[in-house]
Amino acid sequence: MPSGTVEAQTFEINAPIEWNTYTTNEFIPRFSILTSGIAGYDWHIDKSIIDTLVELDSSGNTVNPEEYLHIFAINETNRIKDLPYSTDILTFFINDYLPAHLNTIVYNNKPTVATSSDAPFYDGSNPTEIAVLEALTSDPENDILDYRWQHVGPFTNYENSVSYIPLITDKLASTTNVELPNNIVVDSALKIQLEVTDTFNTVTNEVPIYISGTYRFDH
Question: pTM for the full model?
Answer without folding.
Answer: 0.72
